[in-house]
Amino acid sequence: VLVNEITTLCRHAEAHFSGKYHKWANQHSFESMLPGDVKACKENAAQQMINAHLTELKSERVVPYSDKLFRQAAIEWLVATDQPIQALDHPKFQELIHVASHATNGVRIPGRKGTRAEIMRMFKNHLTRLRTTLNVSDVCVCLWYFVSLGFIECCCQVKRQYHL
């Protein structure tokens, strides 16, 4: 009984004529389509497992809090970043320390990219709230300068004047 199936023909060619087929495929720059060769090609192209290459990160050693250690870290931060001594008295710095002091598992400091994205998000939210508060459709974010007689003039392309 003859069966007209391509898979049967491929298996037959692989079993009985693989040498001749490979020779012909090499001469004609043809990629072998025999089932065994296709399977081997797929296995070679498959992504390898990376589990053997993964290593577990060691958890950071959490230093227990002490007032002396905090003072030392704060002074080192002031000196290293060339901050004025008054920076420790700034309300936003104190708010930062207050928020961080409530962390139970340490504090994760965001990187540059994350910080930049968050600043942009906060700025857009601020502009949205400003538009709502001023009840205007377009808030001009540009350099404003004082003009005589109590007028403020926008320095962008569209000149608008608002009386103080």
Give me a quick take on this structure.
The protein is 49% helix and 7% strand. The longest helix has 23 residues, at 112-134.
Strand content: 5-15%
Low-confidence stretches: 141-164
Principal-axis shape: elongated
Rg, Cα atoms, Å: 35 Å
Helix content: 40-55%
Total of DSSP H or I helical runs spanning 4+ residues: 5
Query: End-to-end span in angstroms?
Result: 100 Å
Largest sheet report: 3 strands, antiparallel
Strand order of the largest sheet: 1-2-3
Count of strand segments: 3
Mean pLDDT: 77
String of helices and strands: HHHHHEEE
Number of domains: 3
Q: Which class do the helix and strand fractions yield? A: mainly alpha
Write the layout of secondary structure elements.
Elements: H1 6-27, H2 35-45, H3 67-80, H4 91-101, H5 112-134, E1 144-147, E2 151-154, E3 161-163
Antiparallel strand pairs: 1-2, 2-3
